[in-house]
Amino acid sequence: MIKRAFLMALALAACETSLPPGVDLAQETSSARPGPIINTAPESASLNHPGGTCLTPCRVDYLQKTRVILGKEGYKPIILNVPPGAADITLEMEPVGRSSPVEDLGLPDL
Length: 110
Prior knowledge:
Blueprint: H1 2-15, E1 24-27, E2 37-41, E3 46-49, E4 52-55, E5 58-61, E6 66-71, E7 78-82, E8 89-92
Parallel strand pairs: 1-5, 2-8
Antiparallel strand pairs: 2-5, 3-4, 3-6, 6-7
């Protein structure tokens, strides 16, 4: 009886997955297998998934292919279809607008 209880506790512990520090979780159900960690450069982009929103880095645990949208103020949004079993990824976000300061000397007098 003790051996059986030990084996059940061991099986339950094996099902638990711990997230690395600083990683948020987008999860469909507790039965979804661990999915990829999606990160962005720069970090802390909003990752919108069918169940809500998390900030990157964020692990996407879904049972089927899932469409996510990454967004951050000052950067172009990224639309991504994440299949089950995908690998971890870091996406470079493309800035929009001016990336360098305007030179005061180059402006005409008003």
